[in-house]
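Let us practice reading a record.
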Amino acid sequence: METQELNNISSQVRRDIVRMVSGASSGHPGGSLGCADFLTLLYFEVLKHDPSNFDMDGKGEDVFYLSNGHISPVWYSVLARSGYFPVNELGTFRKLSTRLQGHPSTDKNIPGVRMASGSLGQGLSCALGTAVTKKLNGDSSLVYTLHGDGELQEGQIW
């Protein structure tokens, strides 16, 4: 993918973030906006994944865990823009009884989400467990995780 195309997607992701947080009058726009380029590059260029065939096991594909779940707006936007669910669902962010809440959750059956995040630091434990499992199963695909600076100073990581 060309750099300009990635820049265009990242710019759209930023617009999505502002719309979601503004529409909900709630959320964490700073961390989300700051990670737009990283997650865009990860999902559109680096990660080996198949949005049309998502399953919780992730066998034979790269896996991503968002540990600092409060930046869910950026992840929801990138997931939608890369084909995991319809982009128009972004308008339901933090609305009652919808899937896209302030922290991603597995009980909402959001394609692309393999871990409920909110307990700071647990993403590292899940990523390590997944990496060991992949290695034991002869699966050479990679595991990625993203953590916030604040969570690195508390919880399981600290």
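A brief commentary: The CA atoms of residues 69 and 103 lie 5 Å apart.
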